[in-house]
Amino acid sequence: MHPRVKPALRRGWRDLTTVQFGVTRAHAVVLGPMDPATAGLLDLVDGTRGPAMLRAEGERLGLPGHHVDQLLSRLAEAGLLDDATGGGEPAAALRKHTEVLDRLRPDLASLSLVDREPTGGIRKLTARRGVRVQVRGAGRVGATIAAVLSGAGVGRVDVLDGGRVEPADVAPGGLPAEAVGERRDDSARRLVRRCAPERPPRRPRPFRSASRSELPGCDTELGRKAGLDGRAGSTQVPYEDPGLSLVVLAPRDGLAAYAPDPRLVAPFMDSGTPHLYAGVLEGTGVVGPLVLPGASACAGCLDLGRAERDMAWPRMLAQWRSGRSRPVQACDLGLAGTVAGLAAAHALAFLDGGLPASAGARWEVPLPELDWRPEPVEPHPDCPCGAARRGNPLDVWEEPADEREDTSKEVEPHETMAL
Predict the structure, then answer these.
(1) Measured between alpha carbons, how far is 129 from 352 in angstroms, rounded to an integer?
(2) How far apart are CA 78 and CA 27, in angstroms?
């Protein structure tokens, strides 16, 4: 281990003996009392030395070895330490790609603040590289979401949409003006590749050549009859394509995000694929709900609940979906960017193992107030998804309470830990 005080936290001295790490209430921690020699040692906890070298440096400053160990222990307990060399082989491989890591350093710094473990941030960042996300919709909102996810290190971002790029689809951070007239899916794929911090892996062919180690029984009579003659490359086996970790539904028609059709997401419900809605309808941004099939409210629950509150809702919805009139989408750039950014942040929080506030709720932001408002979406007892039959619908997606770290605690005025 090469301990390093988390570089994203600003440091300041509250007085001559107490030091504060961090500015915001969510992460600020005060340590003290601290003598000048310990303060000097603190500057050396920068990831370039292991514990043995830090003990040697401490001895030169007049600090006994157990004092150095105690300091490191308290820093780790307070969630203030990173391990500059930890994280296993995936992290070591990422560190070798300095250009890629330089692109992702702000993301790594953010993840390290959220995860108190010294190697938590780098492990989550490397895990993103093996994740596959599908974004359905390549308009002002959907294309920007795909670009953000790709730029944040998600290994594979697929974008699905039809038709050709129109001038109204163009947005900073999304599809460029020169893409007008191109196929939406092709233009979105190029956008994702441009935003990726590293060259994404080529989409695999349906089959690849097998290695000898993958051909058990190749020397048996049965193996020879099956065409496994034991030579590497002589037999074709299917590629392993990672399944979808999340689908983001960001249709260009904001009505499909505000009032999603349960029939269109039936395959995701059947396969247990988590999916998140995002869009803009009539100057109102929408993010959520994040649907965890069988565990949280789905589009069917949303539809049934609204119909109970408004008897005319099904009739009105049928007219709006009929397609007889297609008004111009009221989706200005500022609102579209706001919705895309929040939706991408919720998606990343879920992919990193968290449970964002969009699970079981829909967040709306109307113009011109721009005041985010949560609307709870409860599982409906008549919905075939079955989420209402669970005692606590989100229990299956949460870690046990005694194993979770509360990283949202407000420190008032600051959390203080004694050395």
Answers:
(1) 11
(2) 10
CATH 2.60.40.60 fits 3-84+407-418, yes or no: no
In DSSP notation, 41-66 reads HHTT-BSSS-HHHHHHHHHHTT--HH
Secondary-structure class of domain 132-199+246-385 per CATH? alpha beta
Residues near 275 by beta carbon (within 8 Å), at least 6 away in sequence: 246, 247, 248, 249, 265, 268, 290, 291
Contact residues for 89 (Cβ-Cβ < 8 A; gap 6+)? none
**DSSP-derived secondary structure for 103-172:** HHHHHHHHHHHH--STTHHHHHHHHHTT-EEEEE--STTHHHHHHHHHHTT-SEEEEE--SB--GGGB-T
Q: At what angle do helices 51-60 and 65-77 cross, to 10 degrees?
A: 130
Does residue 139 carry a pLDDT above 90? yes
Q: What is the DSSP letter of 9?
A: S
The token pair at 412 is 């008032």
Distances (CA, A) of 315 to 80, 196, 262, 310, 320: 56, 44, 16, 10, 9
Count of CA atoms in the C-beta half-sphere (13 A) of 337: 9
Parallel, antiparallel, or unpaired for β 19-21 and 11-13? antiparallel
- % of the chain beyond a pLDDT of 90: 74
Answer yes or no: are the C-beta atoms of 14 and 22 closer than 8 Å.
no
Q: Are 95 and 69 in contact (CB under 8 A)?
A: no
- What is the token pair recorded at 363? 């967040």
* pTM confidence score: 0.84
The answer to whether the CB of 210 falls within 8 A of the CB of 232 is yes
Residue 359 per-residue DSSP state: B
Q: Hey, what are 300's tokens?
A: 């069917």
Structural domain boundaries in the chain: 3-84+407-418, 88-128, 132-199+246-385, 207-238
pLDDT tens sequence across 51-87: 999 999 999 999 998 999 999 999 999 999 999 999 9
Neighbours of 106 (CB within 10 A): 11
